[in-house]
Design a protein that fits this description.
The complex is a heterodimer of chains A (148) and B (150).
Chain A (H helix, E strand, L loop, with lengths): L2 H10 L9 H9 L3 H13 L3 E8 L7 E7 L3 H12 L4 E7 L5 E7 L2 H15 L4 E3 L2 E7 L6
Antiparallel strand pairs in A: 2-4, 2-5, 3-4
Helix pairs in contact in A: 2-3
Chain B lengths: L1 H8 L9 H9 L3 H13 L3 E8 L8 E7 L6 H9 L4 E7 L9 E7 L2 H15 L4 E12 L6
Antiparallel strand pairs in B: 2-4, 2-5, 3-4
Helix pairs in contact in B: 2-3
Classes of the chains: A alpha+beta (148), B alpha+beta (150).
Chain lengths: 148, 150
């Protein structure tokens, strides 16, 4: 990855042009020919630096609800618990963290009751009762661009 | 129509010189209309961000921690805003708390090492006077995907 790649990556994380010829547009901004911008981005995708190019949405504006859940899961039940939780398409992120509450996952669904009943179901299936749902009350900051 | 458009742009844009033309063709609308509608979704902030998602969003940062804080209810606005000012803080949310779970403010901090994350948390603490906190590092990723709406 060279400096040109970095410039491109810094530009397209939130500034990807919504235009007929987006790569020509980017080329104008970065002073590069359209085909060079296109080929570099294609390579960065092939190399796996770029996971995808597309829209990221405010789930609330789509009338979707979301929450962050923290669960206290003993080591011997961990594998099964993760398996059950990850089956739900609304679970988009799931991490093991260094805390008594060790499994942390996000859940997005069209209605809050869908999430609540899924969490009940998860508890019933796995026998894990200590699951806190921690929906956001207020957002102070969400930064989306990562300088490369 | 907006739902149909969202279904298409929540995936990966086709790697073509005129990607929106290809998506518009799938819906049987003109490229101009497709672009106009995407712009409008962005103006209405339904689209939070349109662009590339990097595999390692923390490229250049090698460690990140979620720091959970216990903040008195009447201070949360002041503290949340103060923490949001820090460059190393990428997310800052107030979240629901419970009798047996008192953490109510969550900041995602990024640093070059776990050690540095601790130091950032110390600075946040010194800046705001909040001393009740815990750093949660991710030890393993079980799942990471983008949401599929509709």
């Amino acid at each position: 990855m060279d400096n040109r790649d970095r410039e491109i990556l810094n530009e397209i994380q939130s500034g990807f042009p919504i235009a007929q010829r987006p790569y020509r547009e980017l080329g104008k901004r970065l002073d590069l020919p359209e085909d060079e911008v296109f080929l570099r981005i294609r390579r960065l995708k092939e190399e796996g630096v770029i996971r995808r190019i597309g829209g990221n949405f405010h789930s609330k504006k789509l009338d979707y609800r979301s929450t962050l859940c923290a669960a206290k899961v003993p080591q011997k039940k961990l594998k099964r618990f993760v398996e059950v939780v990850n089956r739900y398409p609304g679970v988009t992120h799931n991490y093991l963290r260094n805390h008594e509450y060790n499994v942390w996952f996000t859940f997005i669904a069209p209605r809050i009751v869908t999430i609540e009943s899924a969490l009940k179901e998860i508890s019933e299936i796995t026998g894990i009762k200590d699951v806190h749902s921690l929906p956001a009350v207020r957002m102070f900051k969400i930064k989306v661009d990562f300088e490369v | 129509m907006d739902k149909k458009i969202i279904r298409l742009i929540q995936g990966d844009l086709p790697m073509e010189l005129r990607p929106f033309k290809i998506l518009a063709d799938k819906l049987g609308i003109s490229e101009e209309e497709f672009i106009r509608r995407v712009e409008s979704l962005k103006d209405r902030e339904v689209i939070r961000r349109f662009g590339a998602t990097l595999r390692h969003q923390d490229a250049g940062f090698s460690a990140n921690a979620m720091v959970a804080w216990i903040v008195p209810e009447d201070k949360i606005e002041e503290v949340g805003n103060a923490m949001a000012q820090f460059r190393e803080v990428t997310h800052c949310y107030q979240r629901q708390s419970y009798k047996d779970w008192k953490y109510n403010l969550y900041t995602m901090v990024h640093g070059e090492s776990e050690e540095q994350c601790y130091r950032i948390a110390e600075r946040l603490s010194a800046e705001t006077g909040m001393t009740d906190y815990v750093l949660l590092f991710s030890e393993k990723e079980f799942k990471k995907t983008s949401m599929e709406y509709f």
